[in-house]
Amino acid sequence: MRILITGGAGFIGSFLTERLVSLGYSVVVIDNLSSGDLGRLGQVIDRITFVKDDLKNPRNPEAFQGIDSVFHLAANPEVRLSVTEPRIHFDENIVATFNVLELSRKYGVKNIVYASSSTVYGDAKVLPTPEDHPIQPISVYGAAKTAGEIMCGTYTRLYGINCVALRYANIVGPRLRHGIIYDLLMKLKRDPNELEVLGDGTQEKSYIYITDTINATLMAWEHAARNSGIYVYNVGNWDLINVREIVNIIVKVSGFNPRITYRPATPDGRGWPGDVKRMLLSIDKIVREVGWRPSMSSKDAIETTAKALSQELGVGKWLKS
User: Fold this and answer.
1) Is residue 72 domain-shared with residue 117, that is, in the same domain?
2) Crossing angle for the helix pair 298-313 and 180-190, nearest 10 degrees?
3) Considering its fold, how many domains does the chain have in total?
4) What is the CATH number of the domain that holds 86?
5) How many other C-beta atoms can be found within 10 angstroms of the C-beta atom of residue 273?
6) Which residue range forms the structural domain that includes residue 91?
7) Distance CA 54, CA 34 (A)
């Protein structure tokens, strides 16, 4: 079986590529390397086919030829950027997704796994939030992910391509180069005496470790491929953690004792306009239908990631000892 991964040199994509190669699949990776890094694929680069291409304007459509399943992970993940530069997210998260679906149709791909997001719910009225909750994104990023889900469902109904859309919570782990853990560690690297935190610190969200994410992704893919149609699953955790707790973990891991300043961008304490204040997904459906469940809590995922990234980024008082 030949599998294509878009964004395969990215954070999630590189772990997925490694896992699929270890399972014996023939893997093709497409990445424009705007944020992806071939160094993440160092252990498997000689066992995959790598295609450098930009899915906004694909120049190597033949990469989809002979592919059985596509994991579409390529996207711009910066929610903040989508608020100030919405055109970027339209191009990279909507246009690119349309091109992936159209090339999949043209070349007879049977299965697509689409990386969606918890941001499609916006400020959810129900926590934990089930998959049948109204879709009301408050960021262009969330709107773009919603559009991708709708297009996937349409291609399923119109062309018979099986699709599973995975609404991921915040995914963390080694190699991560965006999000709160990375941002805080980089701020401490620049100045270990001062730490500015976006928001008032009361934001609460769910986090999931990368290996749990890959397990969920593959189990949902296998489940959907055995059947037919469109499947939508939340992929998150049982618990959540607030920003102040995360800051305490980062400070403890670094060994520094900075002066901490909280900078809310909205009257209700969000980090930026379009930031979801509280997010906790219901994972009952994927547990029931697929049999997956996370092995690590949100707090454990944050702690494990903070330790790994502090070493990768060279951040910490311990480095000077």
Assistant:
1) yes
2) 40
3) 2
4) 3.40.50.720
5) 12
6) 2-172+208-235
7) 9
**Domain check: are 215 and 194 in the same one?**
no
**Burial zone of 171 (CB within 10 Å; 0-12 exposed, 13-18 middle, 19+ buried):** buried
Burial of 232-267, coded b for 16+ CB within 10 Å and e otherwise, reads bbbbbbebbbebbebbebbbebbbbebeeebebbee
Residues 264 and 226 placed together within one structural domain of the fold: no
Same domain, 145 and 16: yes
What's the predicted TM-score (pTM) here? 0.96
Average pLDDT of the segment spanning 35-63? 96
Encode pLDDT of 256-314 as tens digits: 999 999 999 999 999 999 999 999 999 999 999 999 999 999 999 999 999 999 999 99
pLDDT in tens, 109-158: 999 999 999 999 999 999 999 999 999 999 999 999 999 999 999 999 99
What distance in Å separates the CA atoms of residue 128 and residue 169, rounded to the nearest whole number?
12
- Give yes or no for a cis peptide into 294 (omega within 30° of 0): no
- Alpha-carbon torsion (241, 283, 208, 82), positive or negative: negative
